Amino acid sequence: MESLWPVADFRLLGAVEIWAAGQPIDAGQPRQRAVLAALLVDAGQVVTVGELADRVWGKQPPREAAGTLRAHVARIRRTLERAETLDGDHVRLTHTPGGYVLHVEPDRVDLHRFRRLAGQARQPTHPEEQRTAWLREAVGLWRGQPLTGLAGEWAGRMRQSWDREWLDAVVAWANAELAVGNAGAALGTLTELADRHPLVESLAAALMRTLCAVGRPADALEQYAATRQRLVDELGVDPGAELQALHQAILRGDAVLPGGPAATRPPTVASVVPAQLPGDVAAFAGRVDHLAHLDKLLSASASAPPRAVVISAVSGTAGIGKTTLAVHWAHRTADTFPDGQLYVNLRGFDPGGEVTTPNEAIRGFLDALGVPSERVPPDLSAQVALYRSLMAGRRMLVLLDNARDAAQVRPLLPATPGTLALITSRNQLTPLAAVEGATLLTLDALSESEARELLAARLGDDRLAAEPDATDRILRGCAGLPLALSIAAARAQQSGFPLAALAAELDSAADRLDALDAGDPATQVRTVFSWSYATLSPDAARLFRLLGLDPGPDISAAAAAGLAGRDAGRLLTELTRASLLIEHAPGRYTMHDLLRAYAADLAGEQDTSEERRAATRRLLDHYAHTAHAASRVLYPHRDPVLIPMDEPAKDSRPVDLADRAAATAWLAAEHPVLLGAIRYAVGDGFDRHAWWLAWALDTFLYRQGHWHELAEAWEAALRAARWLANSAAEAYAYHRRARPETRFGRYDEARVRVQQALSLYVTGGDLIGQADAHHSLATIWELEGDFAAALDHVQQSAGLYGAAGHRRGQAVSLANVGWFQARLGDLDPALDSSTRARELLRALGDRTGEAGTLLSLGYIHDKRGRHAEAAEVLAEAVDVYRELGDRYYEATASARLGDSYLAAGDATAGRDALRAALRIFTDLGQSEAEAIREKLRG
């Protein structure tokens, strides 16, 4: 395909060529072109002489390589001078102390232009036509096999890597052409590539969709059958979820264009149908016109043009029934959204100020859509892009409840047709109407007939008919506020009092309720709230007040017992029946934010500061001690917590967690609450609790891949340590804060934080802390590929652990010394270090550490050519990781075991081990799966 734009001045995506003034310039003999290509790949950056030699000649360059390179560079300069004479543009090739730099605009090199265009096209915010044009140009820059005519390992690696980028771009281009109604444009290219790459499922899917679009569904089904057979024959696996779903859609006769029911989804994410809606109300009444309006919007969304996303923003004062209406309508139309319903309470008006951030909401949606935590990108913009990609082609409802403003909502809006976003807020979200074309639906008070219908649904027509005058007074007093009517009905049901008695109570506060549209909503319904509160037993009333102090988004029955200092089961039931609390999940409770504010006000009025502080201490002790126990179960060999924990307050009731499964389940349910507790505790006189909670959450958050939450927890712990003036705790917090930065790939930031910790450790004379810091620095250098620097830090770490008498630290350091010695090629010392480390860790009962040494030993044996010995220890590593329940490292060990078997000549065992690794990596959504597939194909 010819590019629609001017060709690049320098070409790598085919033969290596130079063009100027529309004509080719002789780029020299193959070795000279190899030097030019090696410089163009890193245009504008220093390429060292060693790197150039490696790229041109491989690992064993000739002795005269440096001189030969200088000669080639001189000839390239003369060639560039000829090109400059033709087009007047100056490209410089300069020598620096570090190597050579080819100064050229990246867009003048076809490889870099291709990458820019493909990257721009991946941004969903651009119009579809523009994205398609960019992809057409990107695909058109390819002229055949990259670096044609160049031999050598480096050129082969580049071709293999760029080919993957090319295939991804072709698939994106084909889907883009489909989206703009130009299916035939990509058919020839897809057909040719599918023949050359029969095991690339995304390519097969794009071809199948294109064949359907041009009226050839039978050929699409034939393509699926051929692809499936090749996968089974060569890899022993069935097609992935995307290809299977596409196949079923074609069989059903569904549309399979991008954005339709069978649109492309990331193949490593399981097809999940979330159902996150809260429960519907038992007795919904009224709002007929509003429901009809929402139904009309739903009908419009089904026939909307591809660019439309229908948004309905339901706004109104507190207690007006926004959430009730939205949830009821969502349940009523759930069948219209076969791909599921997402829900989040954005807590935009939470009295404690704990607003749900877009990052937290997106993370929850990605969890619900089946994205493994390790595949969640670190940045919000990338998370939004992944979320919108997963939503593409799905028919889903997204209910965004209790939004503060448009800015909080925008990142959560889907970007493709077929999905409807329903938003509730106390504010008029006018910017959404102006920019996103949202439909604004404002709720006001219920009409008299609707209010009467609601009361009748709760109390029965007979009871209202028996006291018509009292009924009218209650209706007038509640002024059509659904929340007030619901609580009044609950009060009447619970007390059995005559309606006249309730009407008399309301009459005395009618002046405030009549002013419902002005003033502070938190005080306007106070009298209504007080009805339910006044009927509570003293113990339930006390618990209700204390719940206003709870920092979490919800609370478990066990935590409520700790807050109350006594068994809370009966009290929670009483509060739920009084409509003052909602059991939104078994054993977990939440309350309306106005009720929370009301409860907190009551606590300030009726409980002393000492009583409130004692209750907060019991709750935080409950969380801290239970979380500490859970962390100990997950990681029994971890060093003790740095700030010694006090005995838990009497009646704080920490939970007894029996095993790993119980600890994991408790932390999974409670970690959002624990993060809220950390925020609450910092600087409020409970800084020790904040630090303990961060320590206790560390293992769970790290292993689960909750990097953002981990960073937040240790950032708060750092502030707490400063409040406590505890330099040792501050150093530890700096150190742990570096770990999520490492996972984000921000190695410089991670290194700075570890160095800050190391400085404090040295000042405080903390040998173990210093050793830990050097261990972390070794990890960072390893990730950056500098094994010599990593080994140096590990050796320093080992010496410090030895001086401190820390046996496990010595053993782990010795294991890491062995690993880095092996990576540097010092195999005999590596074997000795790893063997001794294994014996030490086995004596200490550290199965995780022992499994790591088995991996190292397998690597060393393989490098020494002793593949049978490598297979033996790696098989043992697989068994140990399976015993520990560590699936990721079980797959890692299986993959290495497969390599060892293949090297030993046992092809059957090798394929079996690689297939076992592939199954686990695929199940976990790990990128390593593709490398295993490639290996099996080979």
UniProtKB/TrEMBL annotation:
The keyword Ion transport does not apply. It comes from Luedemannella flava. It holds the Pfam family BTAD. The lineage of its organism: Bacteria, Bacillati, Actinomycetota, Actinomycetes, Micromonosporales. It comes from the Bacteria. Belongs to the AfsR/DnrI/RedD regulatory family. Residues 1-104 form the OmpR/PhoB-type domain. Residues 1-104 bind DNA. This is BTAD domain-containing putative transcriptional regulator. InterPro entries: AfsR-DnrI-RedD_regulator (IPR051677), BTAD (IPR005158), OmpR/PhoB-type_DNA-bd (IPR001867), P-loop_NTPase (IPR027417), Sig_transdc_resp-reg_C-effctor (IPR016032), TPR-like_helical_dom_sf (IPR011990), TPR_rpt (IPR019734), WH-like_DNA-bd_sf (IPR036388). The keyword DNA-binding applies. Keywords: DNA-binding, Transcription, Transcription regulation.
